[in-house]
Amino acid sequence: MQTNFDYKLNMIKWIGIITMTIDHAGAFLFPQYLWLRLIGRIAFPCFLYSTVEGTLRTRDYKQYIIRLLLLGIISMPITPNTINVVFLLAVFSLSIKYQRYFLVFLLLSIPTEYSVYGFLFGWSIYWIKERNVLQGIVATGIVQFIVGISLQTYSLLSIPIFLSEKAIKLPRLPKYFFYWYYPLHQVFLILLSMWMIY
């Protein structure tokens, strides 16, 4: 029912989609503008947060994980990293659902986009949301410290969004919007970049 609608999660999904689009526009069309990539660092943690929510809330986990894996496969020819971030989200989701196999999923995350860093970052966000906020925040700092100061460090700017209890009431995103938008917007940007070259 509408009264149970999670405006915070919806807002985080909007932020993830918008910042991802800005990031990919910077990658495909305007690589000279570093600030576009800086804004884009917000996207990945937003999708990690959404994956935590999706894993814990879905009524049919089998269908949820199949959709993620199919999206990853469909996107393989399009994304710069063949074993793209969607596979990382799937492995991360599985590790939440089947926590006894944590080490197995940790190893499976190695060849994916964002690799072990992304997997552990996801778990730090899970910890913030479901276990202990302070421990989770410390964990995010440790994860970033391990990989070193880089462009990706700006992803920490997403944490206050997750901690806030307030949410902007944005239009409700269709249930499967991300599954369509993720590959299609990249196809559009790739075609546009090819047109700009000529």
Total beta strands: 0
**What structural class is derived from the secondary structure elements?**
mainly alpha
**Largest sheet data:** none
CA-atom Rg in angstroms: 16 Å
> Average pLDDT, to the nearest integer?
95
Labels describing this entry:
mainly alpha; 69% helix; 10 helices; 198 residues
Explain this structure.
The protein has 198 residues and is mainly alpha-helical. The protein is globular. The chain has helices spanning 7-28, 34-40, 43-57, 61-75, 85-97, 102-108, 115-130, 133-147, 159-163, 177-197. The chain starts with 6 loop residues before the first helix and ends with a helix. 69% of the residues lie in helices and 0% in strands.
What is this structure, in a nutshell?
This protein has 198 residues and is mainly α. The chain has helices at 7-28, 34-40, 43-57, 61-75, 85-97, 102-108, 115-130, 133-147, 159-163, 177-197.
How is this fold's topology laid out?
Blueprint: H1 7-28, H2 34-40, H3 43-57, H4 61-75, H5 85-97, H6 102-108, H7 115-130, H8 133-147, H9 159-163, H10 177-197
